[in-house]
Amino acid sequence: MSGADKRDAERVPILGQLQGEMMVFQTMLIRDVSKGGVTIETRFPLHIDSLHDVRLTLGKTSVVVKCRVAHSRISDVDQDIVTYRTGLEFIEPSERVIAVIAKFLDAVKADRSSPT
């Protein structure tokens, strides 16, 4: 192996076209949450039926859940900024994720019903 090529594995040039995808975490605003999904607002569109891994920070606990885009629409246009409102359905969440979401929702509801 030469000094200029320090890779452990040989790279093979691809003739023609080979496509891939990259996951990039983008900030989103969560409008509502249920045990079955979330409604979010983003500055970018999401394709109907596309799948995404979504990180939710629920109180002190974060979970990552696979979601399917159920619906999406433009919710606001302000000058050059377009806002999209999108419904995401949780796809086969683990028991741990379901428990974390349920605990968070119970805490939010209890906090709202307690006298201030």
Structural class: alpha+beta
Principal-axes geometry comes out as extended
What is the H/E string? Answer: EEEEEH
Major sheet attributes: 5 strands, antiparallel
β-strand percent reads 35-45%
- Low-pLDDT segments, ≥5 res: none
Order the strands across the largest sheet as they lie in space: 1-2-5-4-3
Describe this structure in words.
- The chain is α+β, with helices and mostly antiparallel strands.
- 16% of the residues lie in helices and 41% in strands.
- It has one helix and five strands, in the order E-E-E-E-E-H.
- Strands 1-2-5-4-3 form a five-stranded antiparallel sheet, covered by helices on one side.
- Strand 3 (51-58) and strand 4 (61-78) form a beta hairpin.
- The chain is extended and about 65 Å long.
- The model has no long low-confidence stretch (mean pLDDT 89).
Task: Please provide a brief summary of the model.
This protein is of the alpha+beta class and 116 residues long. The protein contains one helix and five strands, in the order E-E-E-E-E-H.
List the helices and strands and how they pair.
Layout: E1 29-33, E2 37-42, E3 51-58, E4 61-78, E5 81-90, H1 95-113
Antiparallel strand pairs: 1-2, 2-5, 3-4, 4-5
Keywords:
alpha+beta; 116 residues; 16% helix; five-stranded antiparallel sheet; 41% strand
